[in-house]
């Protein structure tokens, strides 16, 4: 009976040591994975910040050009206004004549259709 008891204790001690080794390995693997995940997140954050810095720098570089183009577009619009007003004034009577012509055609066509 004593001999069996000693064997059981030895097996339990060995199993406990193996369990501790497994726990240490699992903890080490978990810690390593968590550390790697954290490193990747920090790298992603750094890349995002770098990209945002480039975008803001690009905006600053292009803003003077955008302002210049907008000013030129406004000048062009102001220069074209008299031309477009003149063209509109010339085309409007033609539009009225065409409208009257089509109305006459509709009226004449209606007159040709027999009443039902």
UniProtKB/TrEMBL annotation:
Alphabetically list the UniProt keywords: Signal
Tell me any Pfam family this protein matches. Answer: ApoA-II
Gene3D superfamilies for this protein: 6.10.250.100
Q: Which GO terms describe its molecular function?
A: lipid binding
Per the UniProt entry, what is one GO biological process? Answer: lipid transport
- Using the record, list the residue span of the signal peptide; answer none if the entry has no such feature: 1-19
Q: Per its UniProt entry, which superkingdom is the organism in?
A: Eukaryota
Q: Which GO terms describe its cellular component?
A: extracellular region
From the Swiss-Prot or TrEMBL record, give the protein name.
Antifreeze protein type IV
